[in-house]
Amino acid sequence: MADRDYSQYQQKVIRRYYDNKEQIDEQRLSELVTNLYLAPPKKQEKMWETARELMERMKLPAARIEHVMKTKDAAVLAKVVEELQKGVIKRG
Q1: I want to staple 88 with a disulfide (CB 3.0 to 4.6 A). Which of 3, 37, 53, 83 is the partner?
Q2: Under the phi-then-psi rule, with left for phi > 0, alpha for psi from -120 to 50, and beta for the rest, what region is 87?
């Protein structure tokens, strides 16, 4: 792990984080849906950019990401999260 000397405990924490990165990103995307419904328009723009970054990192199909970003509808993003949780969406 890089050039640093991490303790065994720190190494395990880091390893678990990366082992669960996909679930963490999925959870963050889910939380963004809720926040988008509640946030004022000025804050929503930054949230949409975060949603794009998360979807790209999760390797969702580019066409699906563009559709979500074009509509900028929290309900559409919620549908994506639902499909992710059910395993319907294939990740690239």
Answers
A1: 83
A2: left
pLDDT in tens, 5-50: 999 999 999 999 999 998 999 999 999 999 999 999 999 999 999 9
Burial of 79 (0-12, 13-18, 19+ CB in 10 A): middle
Residue 53 CB neighbour total at 10 angstroms: 13
Which residue is it, tokens 């390893």?
15
From the list 22, 38, 72, 35, the residue with the least C-alpha distance to 52 is: 72
DSSP letter assigned to residue 90: P
| Number of domains forming the structure of the chain | 1
CB 89 within 8 A of CB 67: no
pTM (two decimals): 0.82
Q: Is 2 within the bounds of a domain?
A: no
